[in-house]
Amino acid sequence: MGERSDILRLKACPQCDYDLVGLPGAHACPECGFEYDESTFRLDVWPLDDEPKLGALVFNGLLTLMMLLLSIALIGAGSTILWWQTWPFFCLLVFAGSFLVMCRRTVLHLKGRTSSTLVLSKRGYQRVWDNVPGKWTTWENLPTRMIRRLRRRRWRLLLKTGPWRRFFDAQVSYVFKADKRTAAAVRKRLRQFSDPANRP
Description:
Radius of gyration: 23 Å
Number of strands: 9
Strand content: 15-25%
Structural class: alpha+beta
């Protein structure tokens, strides 16, 4: 069922977007030389930290507005402001700076500036950013691979490395769009990659 998902078919080269339809399953891209096989597929992902968080954005905006109104009220009082009464101004700077950073990241995400391509195959995974490929990470160095649902048509791909999985490991989380059936197909393919018999 899931294996027939289109997301598991490599239709375009992850590095140069050359059309690979009609070429053999195990081949090299005629344009850039990217080598792939029948197990290779790509995911359009973005870091979990760049996932828009509307609730946090609204909450931070309300705190900023509250500190702004309190600061205006202190200035409008006309009396001398003591040192211990300046805390609203410092809070205003902190909340306003955080709010602007969150707004910037949200705008960049909506423009697609934070997205990249994740190439996965039986030999490992590789991140391609702006047509520039990163290094390959083999599955032997990734003891944990999990897919969890964030919300409707949003899935979290968690990749963990290191011997201590709870506190001292290095982990990276990506988000990708997919329906439930497609996410199940991706999870099944990743489980196949974890089988040593399927590794090159």
